[in-house]
Amino acid sequence: MDFIDLKTQYRRVQDSVNARIRTVLEHGQYILGAETVELENKLAEYVGAKHCIGASSGTDTLLIALMAYGIGQGDEVITSPFTFIATGEMIALAGAKPVYVDIDARTYNLDPKLIEKAITPRTKAIMPVSLYGQCADMDAINAIARKHGIPVIEDAAQSFGATYKGKRSCAVSEVGSTSFFPSKPLGAYGDGGALFTDDDALAKVMREIRVHGQDRRYHHPRLGINGRLDTLQAAVLLAKMEIFPDEVEARIRIGARYSQLINEAFAKETDPARKVVTPYIAPDCTSVYAQYTVEVADRAKVEQGMKARGVPTAVHYPVPLHLQPVFANLGQGVGSFPISESVGNRVISLPMHPYLTEAHQAQVVAALKESVQG
Ligand SMILES: Cc1ncc(COP(=O)(O)O)c(C=O)c1O
């Protein structure tokens, strides 16, 4: 069993992928070719944002957004410590200080109730992460940001395709940033990412930063990076977009089935040490389950048990960012963000992709029951 099965997906889209790649090989415009523009238009329409800017990764998109707002030395950006390293890393790489705020224990996303206390005159943005495929509480976060006159940059690397109150992730704040890393809900065959905004001026600046701060050929009014999306990756993504809405439906169905099977399997268990907590999806949200992640009391035992039963698992993420050696300079030791730390010790992700069969899901849940209770 694969943790994420990209081969079955390839078999489904191979005619379209191969044809799209062949077209690029024939026209030879490998950098910012027609497919990149076609994809940007398609993604902007899908998300419901005015502008889409294709980029080299979901890491570079975060940096481009921060640079576009001129965020750097002496500035602070509020974010979650319970995320992939890129979120805090790009804030620091831009020269600013990541100011971590603890998460909501049920959604694992930034807790809006804790944000206001962390705001200072140096706060220049809030960067919530839509972890595991579900948006943070964006209305509450946007309201706080509006009150303080600062932007919200959604790190939607894991939530492309998810909805929040009927709107699509990436279009629920001033800027949305996503990733097309191969294992993401919409994955390329290499690195890729995209930025979304309704703001014309900001879109222009982000587009320039993506290409060395260039506004016309060899003319550079600002600093930028080489942050472009390859035409070949855009071609792959265009082919995959044909099946993406269907895959999102499958993800939602498979996630719900997992929760039902797990809750049934553990219904009679009364000992909290032998229970499993399934994902909480807020009533006004859908999740695309970039990860299907549960909480267990004794993770090491469960990891071992699953491995012994031939079921691959992963941990997203074992060490919150404030406890990473690279952020030791922030001086926030164990106990600084108790919910992130306790969740980080308990979470475990199960195999998840749109082609997971009912039989495989039953096998995963049976292995989980034996591993937790055995
Ligand atoms: C929350 C989050 N932010 C940022 C990234 C970075 O994306 P990429 O791998 O495309 O650089 C990822 C993905 O790995 C992620 O999960």
What's the short version?
By secondary structure, the chain is α/β, with parallel strands linked by helices.
CATH architecture of the largest domain: 3-Layer(aba) Sandwich
- Ends distance: 22 Å
**Total DSSP helices:** 12
Mean pLDDT over all positions: 98
Q: Which sequence of SSEs, written as H and E, runs from N to C?
A: HHEHEHEHEHEEEEEHHHEEHHEH
CATH class of the largest domain: Alpha Beta
Strand tally is 12
Multimerization status: single chain
Q: How many separate domains make up the residues? A: 2
Pfam families: DegT_DnrJ_EryC1 (PF01041)
GO molecular function: pyridoxal phosphate binding; transaminase activity
Active site: 184 (proton acceptor)
Keywords: Aminotransferase, Pyridoxal phosphate, Transferase
Write out key terms for the chains shown.
374 residues, alpha/beta, Aspartate Aminotransferase, domain 2, Aspartate Aminotransferase, domain 1, 2 domains, four-stranded mixed beta sheet, 12 helices, globular, binds pyridoxal-5'-phosphate, PyrdxlP-dep_Trfase_small, aminotransferase, Aminotransferase DegT, transaminase activity
